[in-house]
Design goal:
By secondary structure, this protein is of the alpha+beta class. The chain has a single domain, classed as S-adenosylmethionine decarboxylase (4-Layer Sandwich). 21% of the residues lie in helices and 35% in strands. The strands form three sheets. It has an eight-stranded antiparallel beta sheet. The chain has a two-stranded antiparallel ribbon with strand order 4-5. Strand 11 and strand 12 form a beta hairpin. It starts with 18 loop residues before the first strand and ends with a helix.
Length: 258
């Protein structure tokens, strides 16, 4: 297995064609006490994280990982949810080409892309609402998608998080040796700001560097109801204790502790 250490200077032969895929899946939880609050929560989520606002986050990610935006698309769904797609390049050369098929025009997907999908859910009978976001960054070349992790944490309220990272393919050094990863690290958590990491109680880390597979799971430390209630006036609601127990049971289930 071609493997390099951080001490080795990488001199490639030609283009770096390693494929690097970062999947960032987050869950935000909220407590509601009636159907009206559920509806208000969904409307608030759809406004706060509309496809245009998610696309703005995607643009910020592109800037962080030093990639050029080539094309964008977005969609808001009825009744809930949104999706976006951003095509990007690491600007190492090459020409963007459009090809015509009948009356439609389709574009070649150049080296990299970023997709997002959101899933608001207010259907739980116990009043615990969830908002899930899936960000997938697939890159080829010198782009390091792991650099985007902290911005994703800061862009959302993350109560439970799954992060997966996979590197596939190989590229060659100048001496012809194949390498299967161009950056050595132990864990995805190496890229997470320590202040962010300290917010989480449960840490699960799966590291298989010889297979170029990494996964980190995180669950937020126990916090007061002020983080989770939709209306702050409900912090002292008579049912708040039961609601908080239900919320943490939901979080543990999503994290797979239950």
């Amino acid at each position: 297995m071609g493997f390099i250490t951080s001490a080795e200077k990488i001199k490639l032969s030609g283009f770096n064609n390693l494929t690097k895929i970062l999947s960032f899946n987050l869950y935000d939880f909220c407590i509601t006490f009636d159907d009206k609050q559920k509806e208000e929560y969904i409307n608030w989520i759809n406004e706060k994280y509309s496809s245009e606002k998610i696309l703005k986050i995607s643009r910020e990610i592109c800037e962080i990982i030093d990639s050029d935006i080539i094309n964008e698309s977005k969609m808001d769904y009825d009744p809930v949810g949104a999706s976006t797609m951003t095509l990007m390049s690491d600007a190492q050369g090459g020409k963007w080409e459009s090809v015509s098929h009948g009356s439609s025009v389709k574009s070649h997907l150049t080296k990299s892309h970023l997709t997002s999908h959101t899933y608001p859910d207010a259907s739980a009978p116990n009043g615990v609402c969830t908002y899930r976001v899936d960000f997938d960054i697939a890159t080829c070349g010198d782009i390091i998608p792991l650099k985007a992790i902290n911005h994703l944490f800061k862009s959302f309220e993350c109560d439970v998080v799954y992060i997966d990272y996979v590197v596939r393919g190989y590229t060659r050094l100048e001496n012809g040796k194949k390498i299967y990863n161009d950056e050595y690290f132990n864990s995805i958590q190496d890229f997470i700001d320590p202040e962010i990491l300290a917010m989480f109680e449960y840490h699960s880390d799966l590291n298989m560097p010889r297979d170029n597979i990494w996964q980190t799971k995180l669950m937020l430390k126990k916090m007061g109801p002020e983080r989770f209630v939709y209306h702050q006036k409900d912090i002292d609601h008579p049912q708040i204790k039961d609601k908080m127990l239900a919320l943490y049971e939901e979080m543990r289930e999503v994290y797979h502790l239950s």
